[in-house]
Amino acid sequence: MREIQLPLSQTQKVRLQKALEQLESLSTKVNSDASVIIADSIHVNHEDGVLKGHGTADLNGEVVATLCGVVERVNKLVYVRALRSRYKPEVGDIVIGRVVEVAQKRWRLEINYNQDAVLLLSSMNMPDGVQRRRTAVDELNMRCIFEENDVVCAEVRGFQHDGLHLQARSRKYGKLNRGQLLTVPPYLVKRQKQHFHHLEEFGIDLILGCNGFIWVGEHVEAKDDMIEDQVSQSDSQVLFPNKNCVSLEEQEKNYTILETRKYISRAANAVRVLSTLGFNITLEIIKGIIDLSLSMNLDIHDMLGSEFCVLVAEKEAERRSSMKKRR
Amino acid sequence: MAGKGGSTPATYSPSPTTDKKKPSLFNEDLARPDGRSFHQCRPAFFRTGAVNAASGSAYAEVGNTKVIVSVFGPRESKKAMMYSDIGRLNCNVSFTTFATPIRGQGSDHKEYSSMLHKALEGAIILETFPKTTVDVFALVLESSGSDLPVVISCASLALADAGIMMYDLVASVSVSCFNKNLVIDPVLEEENGQDGSLMITCMPSRYEITQLTVTGEWSTPKINEGMQLCLDACAKLAKIMRSCLKEAVSDSQE
What we know:
The structure holds two protein chains of two kinds. In chain A, 27% of the residues lie in helices and 26% in strands. Chain A has helices spanning 10-26, 136-140, 235-239, 248-254, 258-277, 283-295, 306-326; strands spanning 35-36, 51-52, 56-59, 62-65, 69-74, 77-82, 94-103, 106-110, 117-124, 151-160, 163-168, 174-175, 179-183, 196-199, 204-208, 213-218. In chain A, helix 1 (10-26) packs parallel to helix 7 and helix 5 (258-277) crosses helix 6 (283-295). The longest helix of chain A has 21 residues, at 306-326. By secondary structure, chain B is α+β, with helices and mostly antiparallel strands. Chain B has a five-stranded mixed beta sheet with strand order 1-2-3-5-4. A four-stranded antiparallel beta sheet of chain B has the order 7-6-8-9, with helices on both faces. Chain B: GO terms for molecular function: RNA binding.
């Protein structure tokens, strides 16, 4: 049974074990012989001209594993797929990152990858939405857009000589405010057609970053791309907004109502439960967990309890078995 | 300072009769303080995934010596560091304030840190993560002798758990010398009274040694005997480590 760090009673242990066994029987069987650890020899037919891939090495004419994981074979290629590997970016991935440095014409973001990602000023839509060249003045005012520790959503643009490049050339990307950032193992977030989700019934936004960073926050209406500059405001006011002087209207705008905050916490706890159980994180499962907690009239903090985790595992086993029957 | 005329400076040399013998650590039936025989190791326990926040981690318990190791990375090297086409390994060994019998002595151990670095460096395939750094932080929770070998073995498990490419797991065992006796896996009392010590760090599957540390007086036959003892013990320790990893892999596969 998967080792889950939960204080379970004996009955809960039995129930959880039963649910996990049921899920295991439903999932496609993995060949246990294929799992290897470091320095295990991998059986190959040398006559076929084997290609040694990632996670393998040659020792006295024998192919040995240099990683703990599962041996995969694609035609002549033999490689080891690590079970606990770091996030490996692909072009087009939606990622969430935290700004670690404001550099010259660029921001550096921590995205749970081996190296920090780079978001260029030129790859970024300006806050006012106007399409224009980025001038020296824009460069001076980069901190007005993003500063250190800001959470940013972007898309992987490609790999350049100076690292991984991101872009945020759409209104759905940009700075994330008023919400919770959660970190889960990257392999729990599968690449899908849609990573931006709006849960209308709860009034919250959910962004599933491919890098294992998940954002749960208040729903924000995306503004139109082309917004005219207000003539009444002088250039200095536009470029250097006074952060200290905040009007009451602006304070009201930034205030998140209690009901929404509760839903954000529920969604966040649903993600935490899935991460604890090691289940793939998808919108429908998260919705199901929120609905389950609401139907049980469960307090938000009780969602992280052992009983609820066991219940979620049982419900997931039921859901998958019913899906299999339908097929 | 002028001495008295014609007087020679007095020197002290102990006479053989006044030289007191060291109190024997072992009783008559050649048993050690914890009841083991000379060539018997302490029971070992390993477990991976002890720290959730780390990329990989491991907990080790060998006798009363308890160690926890966290591995972070590979992550981008600091700006101050120059470009490197191979990865960097950064090791840090520290003791808790309650690790030793004397309270409040917990601190970073620079010597242990550099020895841990040397022991692991040969086993990690550094070419697989250029321009990045892997940080290994070891914390000794309870010190009961043979701390460094336990730290090294635990660190190699943590690296494997973090998915860092390695040629082989690293196992480490130390031997202490008492007159003519060789004692494997010494406890704190034995380490305090030893004539010399030998520590071997090896990759058991490859039968390669990544580090050999010898202190004190050793004759060549004694060193050979000590090395053989250590290598045999490393092979046994590696079996326990491998079974721990196998268990972790099969669990996460489920």
